[in-house]
Amino acid sequence: MSANRKNNLTTSWGAPVGDNQHSMTAGSRGPTLIQDVHLLEKLAHFNRERIPERVVHAKGAGAHGYFEVTNDLTAHTKAAFLSEVGKRTPLFVRFSTVAGELGSADTVRDPRGFAVKFYTEEGNYDLVGNNTPVFFIRDAIKFPDFIHTQKRDPQTHLKNPTAVWDFWSLSPESLHQVTILMSDRGIPATLRHMHGFGSHTFKWVNAKGEGIWVKYHFKTEQGIKNLSSEAAAKIAGENPDYHTEDLFNAIKNGDYPAWRLYVQLMPLEDADTYRFDPFDVTKVWSQKDYPLIEVGRMVLDRNPDNYFAEVEQATFSPGTLVPGIEVSPDKMLQGRLFAYHDAHRYRVGTNHQMLPINRPRNDVQNYQRDGHMRFDQNGGGSVYYEPNSFGGPTEAQEHRTTAYPVAGEADSVAYDRDDHYTQAGDLYRLMSEGERVRLVQNIVNSMKPVTIEEIKLRQIGHFYKADPEYGTRVAEGLGLPVPGEAK
């Protein structure tokens, strides 16, 4: 390499990258443009970095159950499985940790995946969320880099706290999720004793074509229970499959876990005036502004017969949608619409949707043919293209997705609102004194191994901006001053 050559980040084909922090979108709100070849190549490569286990959410447990509608919300959505009170829809749920490998301990401090597959009469609907209402980042272009920090160092093959906190300190949008992760809720006592969230904003559409923004909340009927860091570490050494075992045994013994599903609904026009960008997944909507409305009840009442066939081969994607439920311009969601299906095509196979655990309960009619592991009749001798003159399946115009306006220049741009501190500070101030003490201690213990003081000081500055007491306590715990520019 020439001594005077610039240290440019490049694509895999050697072209310099002009922006590695923002997806290319139509205006500041989006949606994301498929012409952003750097984003597509980055996500596609990331999905293929590890085989054969999932690149994220590798360690998981699952169960079958049903969803029963308890409230009539047909004024807001035409989704058939929500069409009448008392209606039951079979489902499969997979819970998981995010960063660990397939054999990692269940009781690590990590968000938990909370993925639900509804087998509806109009096809499968996947609600793929976490046990937290927000996430660390809000643009999918940063996801591969973020997960790299959570995985193993390529030289030492050890977890790297310096990388973790370096990324977080340089990505202040992560502060809200970091505060949740380091709080008491960072380690659920069991998979049964935690809430679940769709996290992203979606759009419901009713039979008249009228839309409304929606967020999903699963509230556990078992109550919230968490583990201290000390108890979690002890259990990890004694029974690393503790959560998996607990869920299986509870269902086996007839102690069926259940959750109530609620939604928050926001009129479409409010998105332009709400004090936080409603499509920013690092933010929540205040329940005072948009109260929770009950939808139904989820019950898990049957264990898998075979872990690999059902839990390991289950595939979920936020792009698996049904009529009446659509997406929003959320930049993180827009990236996931591509990345999840692409990951499954790579990890499980082109025809992963045909596996029993993933197969819809209604008939599938399309013109997709061939591919690895095609184990049905492959369409037989039926017509294999469209349009055609032979009576093959055609589109249903009544199920076209509804429009929403987009505007602006095609460019790689950030969200136009950057308040990363208010909601994290509000969360800190809502905590009891005991919760604050444990939060700060968990952060201090996690940051102590960081080898570069500048990273610690930068992160302390973020905590201080969220709440001066928050930052000061972390600084004192690390034996460092609060940076002057933070005050």
Short description:
Helix content is 27%, strand content 17%. The chain has helices at residues 37-47, 143-150, 161-170, 175-182, 229-238, 242-252, 307-312, 331-347, 422-430, 433-447, 453-466, 468-478, and strands at 24-26, 60-69, 88-97, 112-120, 123-130, 196-197, 202-205, 211-220, 258-267, 293-302, 325-327, 410-412.
* Count of DSSP H/I helices: 12
The first-level CATH class name of the domain at 24-135 and 188-362? Mainly Beta
How large is the share of residues in beta strands? 15-25%
CATH fold description of the domain at 24-135 and 188-362: Catalase HpII,  Chain A, domain 1
Rg on CA atoms, Å: 23 Å
Annotation, overall tally of beta strands:
12
Roughly what is the average pLDDT, rounded to an integer? 93
Order of SSEs: EHEEEEHHHEEEHHEEHEHEHHHH
Q: Based on Cα principal axes, name the global outline.
A: globular
What summary fits the major beta sheet?
Answer: 10 strands, antiparallel
**Content-based structural category:** alpha+beta
Question: Ranges with pLDDT <50 over ≥5 residues?
Answer: none
Q: Specify the helix fraction band.
A: 25-40%
Please identify, by name, the CATH architecture of the domain at 24-135 and 188-362.
Beta Barrel
Termini separation comes to: 44 Å
CATH superfamily assignment of the domain at 24-135 and 188-362?
Catalase core domain
Explain this structure.
Pfam families: Catalase (PF00199), Catalase-rel (PF06628). Residues 10-394 form the Catalase core domain. Belongs to the catalase family. Residues 1-13 have a biased composition (Polar residues). It comes from Brevibacillus ruminantium. With 487 residues, the chain is α+β, with helices and mostly antiparallel strands. The protein has a domain at 24-135 and 188-362: Catalase HpII,  Chain A, domain 1 (Beta Barrel). It is 27% helix and 17% strand. The protein contains twelve helices and twelve strands. Strands 2, 3, 4, 5, 6, 7, 8, 9, 10 and 11 form a ten-stranded antiparallel beta sheet that branches. Strands 1-12 form a two-stranded antiparallel sheet. β4 (112-120) and β5 (123-130) form a beta hairpin. α4 (175-182) packs parallel to α9 (422-430), α10 packs across α12 (468-478) and α11 (453-466) runs antiparallel to α12 (468-478).
